[in-house]
From TrEMBL:
Gene Ontology MF: a single term: oligopeptide transmembrane transporter activity
Lineage: Eukaryota, Viridiplantae, Streptophyta, Embryophyta, Tracheophyta
Keyword vocabulary terms for this entry: Membrane, Peptide transport, Protein transport, Transmembrane, Transmembrane helix, Transport
Keyword Hydrolase set for record: no
Listed transmembrane segments: 12-31, 37-60
Superkingdom as given in the UniProt entry: Eukaryota
Protein name: Oligopeptide transporter 4-like
Family as reported in the entry's similarity comment: Belongs to the oligopeptide OPT transporter (TC 2.A.67.1) family.
């Protein structure tokens, strides 16, 4: 691997900046479809920045990656109620897994709502 050139850090920073700018533009100009305000994107980015190091340390030591989706879904649900699109996608993913595992839909619903 020493024979190959390393990736410059500025490539990652540029990708981060472009991604955040495109996401902000979508939140501002497509607010009815996206259902996330611009400040929600900034808040989500800040949460990701804060939790990246602890999650990386846990993953590196235990080979288990803790999911932050539960925490972020509850926090955003409390801060910005009435916009369930982001939570609904995760909700449907869990239902799909429950379907494959032959878990009754009503049991899955009760567990998800709690």
């Amino acid at each position: 691997m020493k024979r190959y050139k390393d990736i410059p850090s500025w490539w990652f920073y540029l990708l981060l900046i472009v991604t955040v700018l495109v996401s902000l533009a979508m939140c501002i100009f497509m607010k009815d479809q996206i259902q996330m305000p611009w400040w929600g994107l900034i808040f989500a980015s800040a949460l990701a920045f804060v939790f990246t190091l602890p999650v990386s340390i846990i993953t590196a030591t235990t080979n288990q990656t803790p999911g932050l989706n539960i925490i972020t879904e509850y926090v955003m649900g409390i801060i910005y109620p009435g916009r369930p699109i982001a939570n609904a996608v995760s909700f449907l993913n869990d239902f799909k897994l429950g379907h494959y595992m032959k878990i009754p839909p009503r049991s899955m619903f009760l567990v998800q709502v709690q």
